[in-house]
Write a structure and sequence with these properties.
- This protein is 35% helix and 25% strand.
- The chain is an alpha+beta fold.
- The strands form 2 sheets. Strands 5-2-4-3-11-8-10-9-6 form a 9-stranded antiparallel beta sheet. A two-stranded antiparallel ribbon has the order 1-7.
- Strand 9 and strand 10 form a beta hairpin.
- Helix 5 packs parallel to helix 10.
- The longest helix has 16 residues.
- The chain starts with 12 loop residues before the first helix and ends with a strand.
Amino acid sequence: MARIPKWRHSKSPYELFQLIVEDPRIPKKEISRKFNVNLKTAEIWWNHAVERRIIIPPIFRRKCYENFKEYFYFLNTDDPYKLYWKMQENKEITYSSVETGFANFFIIAKSPIEPEGDIVLEGNRSDYYVSIPPDHDFQTAIVKMRNKLKDLDSLEYFPSPLLSRNYDYEPWDEKDEAIFQSLCNDMRMPFSRLLKETDTYSDKIMKWFRGRDEFGHTITMFFPEGDSSYILLRYFIDTNNDSLLIDIFSELPTSAVFYRLGEMLVISMYLPFSLEGRMIVREALSTLKSEELVTFYTNSFVEYGYRPD
């Protein structure tokens, strides 16, 4: 486990994270103004947060519309190592990872594929829901989660945000697609570079930015100790109570990613290596199962993954 140097700046990384969540393209000059420091200091703070992977800079993912489908495959294959390298040669693959547990390989593809191995779960993912972590430590999170589990009837239920649509998002043209492809892994791309890459006009880009919440998610992730200080686990849960699980697991001080594949709720969680930090999830799911709010659950540990630039 990598050791992250202590944060020694007067503003916490969480305060910086809050600014980025509010405005993912906030200029560093504006950060310096809000924090009442000079530009060089603001740049140092931002660079430290990103280099230590305390803040993962914002990316953009489209919502689940018919013309934006992504194809997810969890499978067991005889040789995950070889398949990992093979998938990097396939331009249709946008992400792949080697895992241990429920499945030993995971693929996200732009179009349907026939992967090598036995598929254990596949489908088009729903919309995402990514938690905005509270500014507290894991011990506090555990206490809050246990308190919620003791009084489940008091929790407010809300409709699941993990929607899937069987119709296209319109209008959507080649310029919209070009803007998306340029920004999907870098929402902070400089405007001048974006203009050049997309060969489009500024009004079109500004309209795309203003309307982006209709068709996608801007995702900024936060890890108080840097993401290498946590273990990435995926949980696969048979439940009809999405909002309840989102409420409970959003108490974690690290970003959690929620989505649906058919009947299964999938949650990617970054947990500490400590025993208590990992046991709390099992404790919560066991409690929910005993209350018949969860029917089944299992998980996988993510060993390593690859995403093309």
